[in-house]
Automatic annotation (TrEMBL):
<dbReference type="InterPro" id="IPR015987">
    <property type="entry name" value="UCP022704"/>
</dbReference>
<dbReference type="InterPro" id="IPR013320">
    <property type="entry name" value="ConA-like_dom_sf"/>
</dbReference>
<protein>
    <recommendedName>
        <fullName>DUF1349 domain-containing protein</fullName>
    </recommendedName>
</protein>
<dbReference type="InterPro" id="IPR009784">
    <property type="entry name" value="DUF1349"/>
</dbReference>
<feature type="region of interest" description="Disordered">
    <location>
        <begin position="1"/>
        <end position="28"/>
    </location>
</feature>
<dbReference type="Pfam" id="PF07081">
    <property type="entry name" value="DUF1349"/>
</dbReference>
């Protein structure tokens, strides 16, 4: 997989979807504090719809990629952070790290009307810098992640209408509490990946 080098985006150029309890720049980082009981989910298994998670969104046209890097100490079940791709309230993809079953999990939720969810445990990623990369080409969004400088891991290949007007950027949620703090350390944009496989 080839991921061309991107350019840094300015936090101040994004638009908040559901502004958090707090968001302030700390040097080149963005420190975000969540509100009470926030999440993104639609219907499947749980029967509820939540569309109140926090996301700082930037244009995400076809042929581009966005990388979100962050550090967080997840303390409560379902604490989560990563990258969100959004078209509308019923069409979105979120991917990142979430605390579930007592350990950090690398996962993704893909929503086209209703949500699905996939997870893989990454206990060694706790408290370390994680980068999530979403790359849009043709009718697909390819989602990858890595911890520190380790190799990229493929998380998901998801369908997205090539004509859809989408946005993407960092997100965080705390479905069981308020006050999760996430330090977003970098946000970059650039060309989409040149290949699906290495």
């Amino acid at each position: 997989m080839s991921s061309p080098t991107g350019h840094d985006l300015s936090w101040s150029d994004g638009d908040w979807l559901n502004p958090p309890a707090g968001a302030r720049e700390d040097g080149s980082h963005l420190l975000v504090t969540t509100r009470q009981d926030t999440d993104f989910w639609r219907t499947t298994s749980y029967g509820f719809v939540h569309d109140d998670g926090h996301a700082l969104l930037f244009p995400f046209p076809a042929g581009t990629a966005v990388e979100v890097s962050f550090v967080a100490d997840f303390d409560e079940v379902f604490d989560q952070a990563g990258a969100l791709v959004r078209v509308d309230p019923g069409t979105w993809i979120k991917a990142g790290v979430e605390l579930s079953d007592g350990v950090p999990q690398l996962g993704a939720v893909v929503t086209h009307g209703t949500s699905d969810w996939s997870l893989a445990p990454v206990p060694g990623w706790a408290g370390r810098e994680v980068t999530v990369r979403v790359s849009r080409a043709g009718d697909a969004v390819t989602v990858r992640a890595r911890c520190d400088g380790e190799p990229w891991r493929m998380i998901r290949l998801a369908w997205l209408d090539p004509a859809a007007q989408a946005s993407a950027g960092p997100f965080c949620c705390s479905p069981q509490r308020a006050g999760l703090q996430v330090r977003f350390t970098r946000l970059t944009a650039g060309p989409a990946d040149t290949a699906l496989h290495s």
